[in-house]
Amino acid sequence: MGALKHIVLPLCTIAHLFAIGVFTFGGKEYMADLLEWPRNTVKLTPIERHLLGAGFTFHVVLTMNNIAAIMVENSHYRAMATFLELVLYSLDLADAMYENTFLGEGGKLFTLVPLAIMTGVTVLGLLVHSQEPGLLTKDKNGKKTK
């Protein structure tokens, strides 16, 4: 049982599918409200709509990549897919902390908590993966005893 294949990448995929569902059924305005984007007007500006559309695209692409990484028997591919998730979540977390001053004004925990959890999950998964085989898996290419 590999940590990336059976735990980390499926969790990331579920998170992306949730976001895709919110975009699909709620729309961009609902996603902006859910993320508590500060807005001066009720309607989103064209650049806000574009950025949310790009966010939707990221979720679709990473979902497809995660599914492929789960299905393909290549631990290096799974590690790279997980690293992409780490980059997404950690940079999004850093940006959210900087832009929304989470550390100073009591912050918006709805955004902070999921990003922090997913960053931790990906880091932990990559740390466990770096110690394989041995923790959760056995070497498939090991020496055969006679």
**Care to count the β-strands?**
0
Mean pLDDT: 84
Number of helical stretches of at least 4 residues = 4
Helix fraction bin: over 70%
Q: What is the first-to-last residue Cα distance?
A: 26 Å
Shape: elongated
Percent of residues in β-strands: under 5%
Major β-sheet profile = none
Radius of gyration: 18 Å
Structural class from helices and strands?
mainly alpha
One letter per element, helices H and strands E, the order comes to HHHH
Question: Spans of 5+ residues with little confidence (pLDDT < 50)?
Answer: none
Give a short synopsis of this structure.
The chain is an all-alpha fold and 146 residues long. The protein has helices spanning 3-34, 46-71, 75-99, 109-130. It is 72% helix and 0% strand.
Blueprint of the fold:
Blueprint: H1 3-34, H2 46-71, H3 75-99, H4 109-130
Helix pairs in contact: 1-2, 1-3, 1-4, 2-3, 3-4
Name some characteristics of this structure:
146 residues; single chain; mainly alpha
Structure description:
- This protein is mainly alpha-helical and 146 residues long.
- It is 72% helix and 0% strand.
- The protein contains four helices and no strands.
- It has helices at residues 3-34, 46-71, 75-99, 109-130.
- Helix 3 (75-99) packs antiparallel against helix 4 (109-130).
- The protein starts with a helix and ends in a 16-residue tail after the last helix.
- The mean pLDDT is 84.
